[in-house]
Amino acid sequence: MVKFYPSIPDDIQEWMLKQSVWFTASAPLAGKHINVSPKGHPESTLAVLNQNQIAYLDATGSGCETISHIYENGRVTIMFCSFGAAPRILRLFCRGRVVEKADKDFNAWVERMIDSGMKMDKAMKGIRAVIVLDVFKVQTSCGFGVPVFPKSKTWDDRPTMPAWSTKMAAKNGLEKYRENNNWRSLDGCPGLKSARRDRGQWLVVEHARARTSRVVMGQWDALIFGFLIALLMFAVGWKLGLLELKL
């Protein structure tokens, strides 16, 4: 049965941090793609700052969809689901903001997350941003369709990300990787500011270009509708003006 809450109840906070897998979803205002990203081990990557605010560490990856979408419109949904005997699906509907590693308040947010109980992760060298999410609605549902993970098996940390991040950091390769892979989304939304600066972009100009491009490519229906309404209002006004002249 679906239930809604205005904030995250204490028992759900405890439950979500014990899960092994969680997901983020986001999308541009105009474009073909809706992004869904899997995440792992929230106890070492995510912190509940209060009942209406969470934050998570965003690792360097091959794309930057969530970051780009947050910069454009701020919409994010977080989902947890139980693979254990007791079923549950949890969705957190949020407004997000990005705190990049180069931002002056990045370390303060990380410290706040640690103070809230988050354990430090070995992949910290590869972190590119803190994603801060203000939760405006919480939804739980049955989760009966989610399979049960056998008790005989356990979830293990995948060592690839910490090893890759450490290797790239050792040869100062993370910044170049982000410059080449994290500067824009699949739909052309501007990505990491640091990556865009490293590419020599003027952030204001690039933001205006991307906004104009998305309007032209993805919102023709709204432009045509607006033009037709304006034309109709002009015709009615002109007609009324003629009638007034005849009177």
TrEMBL record:
Pfam families: PNPOx_N. The chain crosses the membrane at residues 220-238. Residues 36-142 form the Pyridoxamine 5'-phosphate oxidase N-terminal domain. It comes from the Eukaryota. InterPro entries: Pyridox_Oxase_N, Split_barrel_FMN-bd. Keywords: Membrane, Transmembrane, Transmembrane helix. The keyword Iron does not apply. This is Pyridoxamine phosphate oxidase. It comes from Rhizodiscina lignyota. The lineage of its organism: Eukaryota, Fungi, Dikarya, Ascomycota, Pezizomycotina.
